[in-house]
Design goal:
Elements lengths: L6 H13 L10 H10 L2 H12 L6 H13 L5 H21 L4 H13 L10 H10 L6 H12 L10
Length: 163
């Protein structure tokens, strides 16, 4: 007499097939992320933070930290701005602390530091980060390379990156 597989087995099998099949899992869209970093509204930033939170397997702290610091520049209220900035700062710096040689995280920090108000005292790593980005530019993904090159063209960028 043949034994039939329990129904639960098929549910488990279906879960693994759909959860780990390419195209089914949500992927991180770096192009969209850097567009939001460049000129995103508060709503676009909040939406990007939610999307990043739902994506497994990426360093959420670096991306969310950068978005929070960007958001701090466009929200109202001095204390709220400061608290959101500090939260983002902690997340980004923690990510950099874990991956000190990650040139993309350094690029995120460079973008923030070049535009951070002087009163925040968050400008100490500009030259160091620019040097790391330049040294590792060719190892960055094409999406990040495009973001770096596009960033250099923006008004307000200190042009510390020279290619």
């Amino acid at each position: 007499m043949k034994k039939l597989f329990p129904v639960g087995f098929f549910y488990i099998l279906f879960f693994f097939i759909t959860a780990f099949t390419p195209g089914v899992m949500q992927e991180f869209d770096k192009v969209a992320f850097y567009q939001v970093m460049e000129n995103g509204s508060r709503e676009a930033i909040d939406q990007a933070i939610r999307k990043i939170g739902a994506i497994p397997g990426i360093n959420k702290d670096a991306y969310v930290g950068g978005l929070l610091m960007k958001k701090a520049g466009i929200i109202k209220g001095a204390m709220k701005k400061l608290n959101v900035f500090k939260d983002g700062h902690e997340k980004l710096e923690a990510a950099i602390g874990r991956e000190k040689q990650n040139a993309e995280w350094r690029f995120l920090r460079l973008m923030i530091q070049e535009h951070a108000p002087k009163i925040l005292n968050y400008r100490d790593n500009i030259k160091e980060d620019a040097a790391m980005i330049q040294a590792n530019f060719k190892q960055l993904s094409p999406e990040v390379q495009a973001a770096v090159l596009n960033y250099r063209k923006q008004p307000g960028a200190l042009q510390t990156l020279k290619f």
